[in-house]
Amino acid sequence: MNKVKIILLGLAFIIGMPSLVFAMTTTEEKRLFQDIAEIKATLKVFMHQVDKRFEQIDKRFEEMDKRFEKRFEQIDKRFEQIDKRFEQIDKRFDQINNRFEDFRTFLWMIVGIFTTLTGVVIAFAYWDRRTVIKAAVDETISKIEKVGRLKDLIYALERAC
Fold this sequence. Notes:
Layout: H1 2-147, H2 149-160
Helix pairs in contact: 1-2
């Protein structure tokens, strides 16, 4: 009989166990499904909030892009103004360089003219001296020849030379 009790108990346990397990699993499953539903609802709310935050961040980025575009346009304008200033400075330097070149050319012309005038004056002075001295010598010789006595002396000296 003990064996029968054990077998009956075993059968009752085997037959009753699934219903207990089923009863336990259904309540646990219900709790699990409720928890999952709560988690899904929380996730939906969280995702909705995250989407809103990303939209706000996107709007901020768009505003920043607009600001930066305006800034970059201003900076580009400033660079263009600076480029124009540098072009003006370059033109001014070119003008100054041209003036220096003109001045150098003018100085070389003055040096050439001065050198030519100096050479002409020196040549004229040399020619004038020779002419005056030759005329003076010829005149002195003619006066000496007229005097008479010295004429013989000059004649003798000329023959000796």
